[in-house]
């Protein structure tokens, strides 16, 4: 799964899933989810620059 980091906390990361192609198929109530470090492994990080908000971090992760 992939998303854009909204907030980084000590044990989790809040991620916006709205740019995922199949985000609506996941059945979440909204496009934001919490990725808990003990349940998921980050497999790719990429910094990007958004003209409207500046830098942001994109993540790819999988359940462990």
Automatic annotation (TrEMBL):
Q: Which domain of life is it from?
A: Bacteria
InterPro entries for this protein: DUF2187
Q: Name one Pfam family in it.
A: DUF2187
What this protein is called in its record is DUF2187 domain-containing protein
Q: Which organism is it from?
A: Metabacillus lacus
